[in-house]
Amino acid sequence: MADATETGTEPAAEIARAALAEELILALGQELSHGTGVTRRPASTYRLQLHGDFDFEDAARVVPYLHALGVTDLYLSPILEAAPGSRHGYDVVNHGRLNPELGGEEAFLGLAAACAERGMGILVDFVPNHMGIGARNPWWTDVLENGPSSVHAPAFDVEWRPLKTELGHKVLVPLLGDQFGKVLEAGELKLAREGGALEVRYWDHVFPVAPRSVPQLLRHRLPELRAELGEGDVHFQELESICVSLEKLAPRTDTSPQAVADRAREKEVAKRRLAALCDASPRVRAFVDENIRVFNGRKGDRSSFDLLERLLEGQAYRLAFWRVAGEEINYRRFFDVNALAAIRMEEPRVFREAHRLVLGLLRDGHITGLRIDHPDGLYAPPAYFRRLQASYLVERTRALAARRGTPLDADTEALVLERIFEALEAGRLPARPLYVVVEKILVAPERMPEGWDVDGTTGYEFLAAVNGLFVEPEAERAFDGMWTRLSGRREQFADVVVDKKRLVMSSSMAGEVNTLAHRLNRISEMNRRTRDFTLNELTRALVEFVALFPVYRTYVTRRGEVDDRDRALVERTIARARRRSPVVDPSIYDFLRDVVLQRYPEGLTEDERHEWLEFTLKLQQVTGPVTAKAVEDTAFYSYVRLASLNEVGGEPRHFGSTPEEVHALLSERQARFPGSLSATSTHDTKRSEDVRTRIDALSEIPAEFRSAVLRWHRMNRPHVGGENGSAPDRADELLLYQTLVGALPDGGVEPGTRPHPAIGGRHQGYR
User: Fold this and answer.
1) Confidence (pTM)
2) Closest listed residue to residue 60, CA positions, set 101, 92, 107, 17
């Protein structure tokens, strides 16, 4: 009898599944077209920063007041479980749990009910780019325990074959306060037992011990225990059996699905067996704990730490001095923050696990929209937003099926997701059923990218434009002269940015740049016309390109598609780099341009094309952090012609805004992304609105401000310190004076009185 494949027919179950999926999507489309359950767009939002001292219950208590003010939607900082004691919530450690420090699920549902009672929505800040790493993060802990064979290894962007061969199949963990050897011999690294698990402790940090290395400790002095208990003792035999089971585990380099599953299961079985054995046999427990004491060494006896050093060498991580992070880090971070590891949201399983809880809250109406943090760090932002909208529709479909009494199984749900993608592509479902705004910084004249399934930005471009209305453009020449005379610097802001980008790439993000350069070098070796480019030349060209690139990133797709906007940006940047070239052979820029724009030469294999694309996609994830660090955290504090212009999303080179420019911006936002937020201050702004406005006002009295600054400089000259009287320098001094003008009380400070403690504390570093 022929099977279904041979006859060209589908099995009855598959036909029924397809019919159900189509029926549900049709019903969903009708529901959405009639406005039933369509996600709201806020009219006015108020952001609440949640933490242990202001939790969900505290937020619920202010809901009536905010409602009376006319606020239509609460805008909450991240609500998922964050690192212990986090004051901001952006260091999420568990996507599947509401933050217990904020009151957990019950308290959050109380807050949601308080809002719903008044017809208010809740916009929640969601962090898809990175996680806080530490002992409370089960995904990261599993990676440290098992390396590339961890069940959760695909979640993190780790280079398991880094440039430094000693780090092969390991994660560099740069958090030690001194060099490894000094920390070890100071006795600051302590081996400990927690039930049947071994762990290494360094102050408040806890690291797991790899399963295959546990027998190193259990077998130490084992002949002594055998002689005491006897070969036939059941407890001794159990201890040996545990050692054998751990030694038989697949090495961490074996990432086959079966080996990963077996390892994940058997290591936990061994932990339970060891815990039970220590409970059952006081002698074995004393033996294990004494070995731990021996491994921990004795201060003053260097050789006594050899056992612990050998144990640490067998781990899937390498503990290191924090200063080595810039050059040797082998996991992608949020900017250069070692405690925030980037996650691979492009992996479907990672996406599902990270979004399951928040999508359920959206489906049930407890939250009504998302603010997406740092989308430029994502591997493929357009694809992420498409999947986010589609996954929300899957949740809606699941709820619809449940109401009909036909709950979805896993296969049907997968088919529904596939069909929803198709329906979105064909326009059969609304492209933006879920309200989503993004923290996207637009560098003028950059516009929001096409093809993003979002309602707009969080409003940095609005903030900068409106702030510019309070700056007098006619005063630009006067402030140029003041800045040049007082600071002794003549470079323009754009030149400062380029220099600071180079600084960042040679220091805190040198490791990321080196990794990219080696990728580019491998690509150059694929073709006889480019194989003579040296690694040093490629590195210099890459640094020059990134330093001159005018916006945060390009958006080449995972299919290698390049839009006209990105093509023009890359061409212009390459032309500038070639003119300023620090390399011997400027044709290297043609090669770099072709790789970034996916202009493949003839004869390139599929694997080689994949290498080209991977380089470009990884490059896109580096240009953004380099720009952010160089501009927001560095150049904004170096070029302080008028400090109120140095704001996230701002352009200090543009001295103010005209009403016409602001109207043009608002018209474009209304036409393209009418759901954008319009912010004048955020949790990321360097200065609040009132401080910025006071500094803006200085542009109306440039002569008076210049005279005051010169007077203050003469008055404070005796207090300048540092080597050769160099601290603070005159640029820092000018920044300090502007900041004090912006922050001091309206009536000033009476002579002889002490300033408010907050003012003194914030500026004591300048004394």
Assistant:
1) 0.93
2) 107
